[in-house]
Amino acid sequence: MSEKRDEALERAKMLEEAVGTAEIDPEQENVAELRPPPTPPQRVDEGGVAQRMRAYREAAGDRNIKAFINVGSGTVSVGTRVGKKTFRIGVNRKHPKALGDIPSVMGDFVKADVPAIHFIHMISIAQEFGLPIAPITPPEVGEGAVFQRREPNRWLAGFVFLAILLALLAAGQTGPSPKATTTKSS
Questions:
Q1: How many CB atoms are located within 10 Å of the residue 171 CB?
Q2: Any residues with CB less than 8 A from the CB of 121 and at least 6 apart, and which?
Q3: What is residue 92's three-state secondary structure?
Q4: Alpha-carbon distance 136 to 92, whole Å?
Q5: Which range, of 11-25, 43-57, 87-101, averages the lowest pLDDT?
Q6: 23 forms bridges with which residues in the sheet?
Q7: What is the C-alpha separation between 149 and 14, in angstroms, rounded?
């Protein structure tokens, strides 16, 4: 047993050097709890946020920006880890209170009443809809499983189910046809 424990301690020491800190519980044989070193608080490049906002406004010219679409969760786009956790996936119309004064492009747009559409986990979305991930040549417009996905038509199925149910209820209302009763006379 002590050989296995020595191996676990050696692995923990190697991982500690590579990752940061490792805490070893001497009461357990093969368990080493690894904890990465504490990360310093993230800071947002305020100049990067201002530069990006300026670029968007210059590109828009005299036109109003109708929406901001963010793909991914870069620090300049959404702010620090707090922004990554507080902006919802999908449409964001209100500035998250938890974000506070942390600068971000999405936060600036939302404060200016421009809806921000937030997309993350793009690889899993691409896989779900059968889209290629980082293709060498982009597919033609309209190609791909997302355009040919076959799903049952729930409205049609519901309508057919309702029609069958109504037909069964109507048949049950009329009941079986009455049989002629005969009486025997003696």
A1: 10
A2: 89
A3: strand
A4: 33
A5: 11-25
A6: 33
A7: 49
pLDDT at 20: 46
Where is 83: in which H helix or E strand? helix 81-86
Q: How are beta strands 116-119 and 68-71 bridged, if at all?
A: parallel
Average pLDDT over residues 86-91: 86
Q: Which residues are CB-neighbours of 67 under 8 A, at least 6 positions away?
A: 114, 115, 116, 117
Taking the C-alpha atoms of residue 23 and residue 97, their distance in angstroms, rounded to an integer, is 37
Q: Which residue has the tokens 């109708």?
A: 66
Secondary structure class of 35 (helix, strand, coil): strand
Q: What's the rounded Cα separation, in Å, for the pair 152 and 160? A: 13
Q: What is the pLDDT of residues 25-83, one digit of tens each?
A: 455 444 445 455 555 556 667 788 899 999 999 999 999 999 999 988 788 888 877 77
Kindly report, residue by residue over 156-181, the tens digit of the pLDDT. 899 999 999 999 988 877 666 666 55
Contact 138, 145 (CB under 8 A): no
Measured CA to CA, the distance from residue 80 to residue 151 in angstroms comes to 39
- The whole-angstrom separation of Cα 92 and Cα 70 is 11
Residue 140 has pLDDT above 60, yes or no: yes
Looking at residue 84, the DSSP 8-state letter turns out to be H
